Amino acid sequence: MRKILFSIGLIFAGLAFLASPLRASEGTTELKSTKGQALRCFATSILMENYEYQVSLSCRDLIYPPKPDAFSYILWATPTKSDKPLNLGELGIGKGNFKTKIAFSKLFVTIESDIRTRAPEGETVMEGAI
Q1: DSSP characters over 21-81
Q2: End-to-end alpha carbon distance in the chain
Q3: Cα separations (Å) of 120 from 26, 55, 76, 87, 125?
Q4: Which helix (H) or strand (E) is 7 found in, with range?
Q5: How many beta carbons lie within 10 A of that of residue 15, not counting itself?
Q6: pTM for the structure as a whole
Q7: How many CB atoms lie within 10 A of CB 127?
Q8: Strand 86-90 vs strand 124-129: parallel, antiparallel, or unpaired?
Q9: Is the Cβ–Cβ distance between 80 and 25 less than 8 Å?
Q10: Per-residue b/e over 99-126, b at no fewer than 16 CB within 10 Å?
Q11: Cβ atoms of 100 and 53 closer than 8 Å
Q12: Spatial CA neighbour of 88 closest among 50, 45, 40
């Protein structure tokens, strides 16, 4: 009986050791200013039945336009399996709902002059990990 219990214990210990860490794209975060300003956003990410992440965001203390030559705040996600940021979209008036099928670990906001940019070119003003 002891051998059986010992074997079961070893199996569970081995499985726990081999398990990979959880990489969650589901949860909540507060995106905080990278410049020490009062800017902040609160975000929620939920994995829906269609395997898309629904990201809802509400921001406080944003100034419009952010810069004389850049008119938009863009929300980006850092994918868990890539270093290439994903443009989720424009914040509009500090609120937004976004969708992506790509798992991510971090959200950040940049100031951009072109909302269709494929890579962040402007200044990063907020960031937070999911």
Answers
A1: PP----EEEEEEESSSSS-EEEEEEEE-TTS-EEEEEEEES--SSSBTTB-EEEEEEEETT
A2: 45
A3: 23, 19, 8, 8, 12
A4: helix 2-18
A5: 9
A6: 0.80
A7: 18
A8: unpaired
A9: yes
A10: ebeebbebbbbbbbeeeeeeebebeebb
A11: yes
A12: 45
Question: Look-up: residue for tokens 């009062």?
Answer: 38
86 and 102 Cβ atoms separated by less than 8 Å: yes
Q: CA dist 107 to 69, 96, 111, 114, 124, Å? A: 24, 13, 14, 19, 11
In order along its 130 residues, the chain shows pLDDT tens digits of 666 544 555 454 544 444 434 445 889 999 999 988 999 999 999 999 999 999 999 999 998 888 888 889 999 999 999 989 999 999 988 899 999 999 999 999 999 999 899 999 999 999 999 8
pLDDT of residue 93: 87
Q: Which two tokens stand for residue 49?
A: 């039945």
Tokens of 18: 């081999």
How far apart are alpha carbons 16 and 28 in whole angstroms?
27
